Amino acid sequence: MGIKASLPVYAVEDVPGKGKGVIATRDIPKGTRIISEKPFVTGSHQVTSMEELQIRIHEQVCSLNESQQREFFSMHNIYPYTNSIERCLGIFRTNALPIGTDLDNGGVFLNACRVNHACDNNAQNFWNENINRLTIHAVRDIQEGEEITIYYLGSRRNRRARQEQLQKEFKFTCSCQLCSLPLDQSNDSDEKLDRIYKLDCIIELGGIPGLTSSPQRMLSYVDEQIRLWNEPTPDEVGLARAYPDAFQIAIANGDLARGRIFAERLLSLYSTTLGDDSPDVIQYSELARNPSAHQYYGMSMVWKTSLDEVPQRLRPKELEDWLWKRDNRIAQGQLADLRDRLTFPSFSDLPDEREMESKYFEYGDGISPRPVCHWCFLAEVPDIESSVRPRMTIKDADGMIVPFSFHIVHRGKELAKF
C-alpha cells in the first residue's frame, strides 16, 4: 500500500479530444504513488480581491524561467482575456488544483495539471501537508497505455448533475466509460449515486448531535453507503469517505471494539489512496491502537465496549452483521431478543410515520406510509404520579428519562384497576 514509484510511470502525451493528458508507460498497481509534485504557481486565500489575485499570479509567472513559462502558457484557458495579466489568471483558474491544510488555496503543477478528469477516475489527487506536495495515487490497477485520470468535482452525483457542473465550471462534456453507459446501466448508476448523495445529506444534517441522538439509525445509513460503494466492485475513494462517519458514530457512543475495526479499515483505504506518509494514515494508525483518543469518545456510553470485545469465530457475513448492528429477522417461533434495537427501539429511535427515511415505513406512492416492520417500546417506570392527569417517569434502554402523561377522558380512573 502507498507504493512510491522510483522512476516515472507516465508520460504527458496528446490525447484525442482532450489536448494533453497523462498516459501510463507501464502497468501501475493500485496504491502506487504516480506523482509527487510541488506547485510552481500558487494562489492565496489571503488575497482580498480578484484584482489582487490577478497581480499575484502575473508576478509569479513573470519570475519563472523560459521553459516554465512556455509550459504555463501552453495550458488550457477557458476564460476570455485581453492582456497577459488576465491570461495568466485565466490559466490559473482553469488548471489549479486544491492545496493547503484546508484546501483553501490553489496551485498549478507542471505534470499533475495535465491529468484529465473522468467520472470513473483511476487515480486520486491529494495535498499532503506533511511533505508539502500534491500526490496522485492509483486507486485501482492501471494498465500500460491507459490514461491516468482524477475526479475534478467535490461530490459524486448522477450523470446529468455531473455533466452540468463540468460544463459550468470547466466548459467540457465528459465522455468517460461511466458517462457513456447504455441508458439502462446509466439509470442504475444514477440511482445508486443519488441514494449515496441523499444519505450523505441526511448524515451531514444530523451533525455532531446526530452521532448520539439516533446512533442506530445513523450507523444503518453508513452501512447502506458502504454496501453501495462496494457494488459492483469496491470504490476505494467512496469507501474512504464513508468509513469516517462509521468510526465517529461508534466512538461517540463508547464502542471501542467497532471503532478499532473501522479505524483499521480506514487505515488501509487511506494508505492506498493517500500514501503512508499522509496525515490521515498517521492519525488513524494511532486511532486503530487507541480509538478512545478521538475527541468524540465518550459523548455517550450506550454502546460501551472494550477493544477486545469482538465476537470470535464468526463467518465474514456474521462479522459484518455484528459490526453494523444489522437486524437479522427472527425466525418463526423463536423468542424475541429484548436487546434487539430495531424491534425494541430506544426513545430517540422511535419510528415516525412522517419521516421519509425509516425502516418501519415505506412510501409506495411517495406520500402515504405503509408499515413494513413491527416494533415495541419497552421502558422502566421508576415513578408514577397522579394529579390532574396520570403521569409517569419512564427510562428507556439508553437511560434517557422521559415524562409520559395519559390524556384520557376520565383522568386516569380507567387505569385504577391496573
From TrEMBL:
Gene3D superfamilies from the UniProt entry: SET domain, Tetratricopeptide repeat domain
Originating organism: Pseudopithomyces chartarum
Protein known as: SET domain-containing protein
SUPFAM superfamilies: SET domain
Leader sequence segment: none
SET domain boundaries: 7-153
CDD domains: SET_SMYD
InterPro entries in UniProt: SET_dom, SET_dom_sf, SET_domain_protein, TPR-like_helical_dom_sf
